[in-house]
Amino acid sequence: MEDERLRKVSSLQSFVSRPELGSVFGLAIIVLTFMSLTTVSGTFSAMWTNPIGIQAWVELAAFVGILAIGASLLMIAGEFDLSMGANIALAGHSFALLLTFGVPVLPAILITFIELAFLGFIMGTIVVRTGLPSFIVTLGFWFASRGFAVFLSQTLVNQSRLSVKPYLKPPAGGGEDPTLIDNIFAFDKAFGLPFDAEVYYFAILVIITAFMLHRTRFGNWIYASGGDAQAARAVGVPVNRVKISLFMISTCLACLLGVLTVMTSGASDPKAGDFRELHAIAAAVIGGCALMGGYGSVIGAVLGAFIFAIASRGINFVPFIDNNLFRVMLGMMVLGAALLNQFLRNRVLRG
């Protein structure tokens, strides 16, 4: 009988300790709230059943969610990357410049990914070798990436916004084979899919990273690096290599969005990704990632991205609420999520 009670308590503690628990309730609350508000305002169908309305918040969730995946992995390892949004602009400008100078699409994509991966390697190396807080290091790279993107384009072609439509082949509807590599980042148009390409990449990335985090040795190393780096080193975890790898993953995810943005819009934008790093970190926090590391999940960050997107787009469907209140709402959600996660963790630790 005693063993049975202990098993029940253990199962309950295991359930309550899940980092995404708070975001599950948060998502349910935000969905019910905006369903009620849109019903009252007569815009329910516009947001929840109309394809354009659904597209608006699903695509935003995917965009923020891709960054939130990188943010959550770094936060679990006890680090931050504030340069993610700026790296979207840097990747987009780099890709557009390569196309402008006649580099074919596939080599341009590969070169851009190598460039951003190397940038992540530099950031990670500085963090682990100097001991400087990643907050400071990546803040510096935020300024550097944003400024360098504009400097490159204005210096080399005297334009801050680069149009690349003449250098991109049309999607399959224009007569091209949809299996060509040129259409890999625009396959939504090539095959007439309902959402932008980032939604499908987002789904693939969620599956891959969730599996990696919870079913592989590297995932265990990430948790160990953020939980107690010294203890992790003592048992052979390559903490420095893990953290450098995560910075490289973060910059590559930003690169993916930068390339997707250019392929979708046909131009690079120096303001691309503005504030998106904060949105991604907010999604990760709402999703249960601890600010001090060692706790969190990719699934929670994904749910956090959907909470962010539904609140962000949903407020536009409620005419009697000022749109400017969204940031107030987001701030309260981040604070509430952090307090809830701290409360749940303390309850579990106390048994």
From TrEMBL:
It is found in: Cell membrane. Keywords: Cell inner membrane, Cell membrane, Membrane, Sugar transport, Transmembrane, Transmembrane helix, Transport. GO terms for cellular component: plasma membrane. Its main location: membrane. The chain crosses the membrane at residues 21-48, 54-77, 84-103, 199-216, 246-267, 279-312, 324-344. The keyword Transmembrane applies. It comes from the Bacteria. The keyword Transmembrane applies. It holds the Pfam family BPD_transp_2. Part of the binding-protein-dependent transport system for D-xylose. Probably responsible for the translocation of the substrate across the membrane. This is Xylose transport system permease protein XylH. The lineage of its organism: Bacteria, Pseudomonadati, Pseudomonadota, Alphaproteobacteria, environmental samples.
